[in-house]
Write a structure and sequence with these properties.
- This protein has 195 residues and is mostly beta strands.
- It has a single domain, classed as Deoxyuridine 5'-Triphosphate Nucleotidohydrolase, Chain A (Distorted Sandwich), CATH 2.70.40.10.
- Helix content is 9%, strand content 33%.
- Strands 1, 3, 4, 6, 8, 9, 10, 12 and 14 form a nine-stranded antiparallel sheet that branches. Strands 2-7-11 form a three-stranded antiparallel sheet, with no helix packed on it.
- The two termini are 32 Å apart.
Length: 195
């Protein structure tokens, strides 16, 4: 795989091969990545109401999490040890012959903010806003302001276009998501792979 440079990213955006809306500014394009901004929606666990999470029996995200929407000028304060789901501001479309990789910005990492715990891949054919798995591993609360450049995405070329890109999969659980989506693992339980 080959990582797209800033020159290649600009060309792909101009030609519409990669779509990021609203259009990214020149300041958001790095030598080999594009900065994405934090949105204003968060999902937090109802830790005072939920005794545990059983991924096989969770029928609704609303039973274990609540959605919080804040004003763009208001910070979301993430406390030490807290884990929340956030969303990036931009809506992105990845073509069938590229794969995106989501990473946190080092400036946030130096404050103890982790942007994704496991889901760092943006599949070929994905379209939507990205759910961010945000954790505060520091010992002090940190303010997260909507509009802040919170993460970056790099694009790698595939050896050939994906045979079944994400937008063509029948089980594409997070396609065209607009807000921070809770786990939809229960949809996988009927499709168990034998041991």
């Amino acid at each position: 795989m080959v990582v797209l440079s800033d020159r290649d990213i600009k060309r792909a955006l101009k030609e519409g091969k990669i779509s990021i809306q609203p259009d990214v500014s020149e300041e958001q394009i790095n030598p080999s990545s594009v900065d994405l901004r934090l949105g204003n929606q968060f999902r937090v666990f109802k830790h005072a109401e939920v005794t545990h999470i059983d991924q096989r029996n969770t029928s609704s995200a609303d039973k274990i999490m609540k959605l919080i929407e804040i004003e763009p000028s208001t910070p979301f304060i993430i406390h030490p040890g807290e884990f929340v789901l956030g969303i990036n501001h931009e809506y992105i479309k990845v073509p069938d012959d590229l794969v995106g990789r989501l990473d946190g910005k080092s400036s946030w990492g130096r404050l103890g903010i982790v942007i994704h715990s496991t889901a760092g891949t943006v599949d070929p054919g994905f379209e939507g806003r990205l759910t961010l798995e945000i954790a505060n591993i520091s010992k002090v609360p940190v303010c997260l302001y909507p509009g802040s450049r919170i993460c970056k995405v790099t694009f790698d070329t595939l050896s050939s276009p994906s045979e079944v890109p994400y937008n063509m999969r029948k089980d594409a659980k997070y396609l065209k998501q607009m807000g921070p989506e809770a786990s939809k693992m229960t949809k996988e339980e009927g499709k168990k792979i034998p041991l």
